[in-house]
Amino acid sequence: FRRVLFRSVSQSRYPLDQATFALTGLQPGSEVRCFVGTDEATSVEIGGTESSGTSFSFTHSYGGQVGYIQVISLGYKDVFISNFTYPSADYSLPVQQELDRNYSNPV
């Protein structure tokens, strides 16, 4: 009886329909924000970091839902991926950040 009870509690805490989403090719120190919803006023952040390495990943249970992704890094143009449908299986999305030639950071 205890084994069955533990299994059902475990399944409710850790649903099986979760997927890992990864962004690769990031500039170190990039800020990453991933949202569900297409309206910036009502969207919900489902993953993010203030300072990434060359990749960032998180686990989600939003497969099939539409959202957007923002990647921001000093010296590079902001990356905004709109109308992105989060996959229900593990997925890796390569990101190519473009150098911002107009960026100036006076000391």
Describe the structure concisely for a colleague:
By secondary structure, this protein is mainly β. The chain has one helix at 2-13, and strands at residues 19-24, 31-36, 44-49, 55-60, 66-72, 79-85, 91-94.
Structure characterization notes:
This protein is mainly beta. It is built from one helix and seven strands, in the order αβββββββ. The chain has one helix spanning about 1-15, and strands at about 20-25, 30-35, 45-50, 55-60, 65-70, 80-85, 90-95. Strand 5 (about 65-70) and strand 6 (about 80-85) form a beta hairpin. The termini are far apart. Mean pLDDT is about 90; it is low at about 1-10.
Keywords, please?
107 residues, mainly beta, four-stranded antiparallel β-sheet, globular
Extended strand count? 7
Largest sheet descriptor: 4 strands, antiparallel
The secondary structure category is mainly beta
What strand line-up does the widest sheet have? Answer: 3-2-5-6
The rounded Rg comes to: 17 Å
Question: Kindly, what is the distance between the CA atoms of the first and last residues, rounded to a whole number of angstroms?
Answer: 66 Å
Q: Name the helix and strand elements from N-terminus to C-terminus, one letter apiece.
A: HEEEEEEE
Helix tally equals 1
Overall shape: globular
Helix content, binned percent: 10-25%
